[in-house]
Design a protein that fits this description.
The complex is a heterodimer of chains A (110) and B (118).
Chain A (H helix, E strand, L loop, with lengths): L3 E2 L4 E5 L4 E7 L6 E7 L6 E7 L4 E4 L2 E6 L4 E6 L8 E8 L4 E3 L3 E6 L1
Parallel strand pairs in A: 2-11
Antiparallel strand pairs in A: 1-3, 3-8, 4-5, 4-9, 6-7, 7-8, 9-10, 9-11
Chain B lengths: L4 E3 L2 E4 L5 E6 L6 E7 L6 E7 L2 E5 L7 E4 L6 E5 L8 E8 L12 E2 L3 E5 L1
Parallel strand pairs in B: 2-11
Antiparallel strand pairs in B: 1-3, 3-8, 4-5, 4-9, 5-6, 7-8, 9-10, 9-11
The chains are: A mainly beta (110), B mainly beta (118).
Amino acid sequence: DQQVKQNSPSLSVQEGRISILNCDYTNSMFDYFLWYKKYPAEGPTFLISISSIKDKNEDGRFTVFLNKSAKHLSLHIVPSQPGDSAVYFCAASAGNQFYFGTGTSLTVIP
Amino acid sequence: DTGVSQDPRHKITKRGQNVTFRCDPISEHNRLYWYRQTLGQGPEFLTYFQNEAQLEKSRLLSDRFSAERPKGSFSTLEIQRTEQGDSAMYLCASSLGGAPILPTDTQYFGPGTRLTVL
């Protein structure tokens, strides 16, 4: 059973515009959420995280929003840059295991 | 470079052979995780260690798979009698750790070992 879902396999955005990547989860016990970025032939790289006690966390161009009632989180990248083109995974944990979504491939068009 | 390292980066083997992968975590990280990732999927949890103790194993980890972390530093993942379905990217990650898991206990991933079983 897929407890963390990323329903958009791909997203294309013009350089300078906002990229919004979405993630839904089913387990209400999840209390820590993360976004990872992955380039081809590399392992995932940590990007940003949020605890369930918060609804927003910001780090430079990256902001993660958490809506617990909707069991939904999103990653906003603004402004988007060509170097942001990668696969983005959201992940959630409740204790000792992390559950990953299937990823969204972001392409930022120059 | 003080990140997570994995060796080898690529492994091609014939069905039925045994393979072993190594992971060196970030020093002072207590937790070490193994994941498997297939095409179009996110990483799937296999097992994790707190220091040298293997604390949890996924149902994905059949009895042909065994993982060790003998001194609480590097870890090995062995697959015996490989099958074509074992072809995947095997990822290792480490985190600072603590019990219970800390809100800031972010996992840092290695580059992975890509296994191809012919």
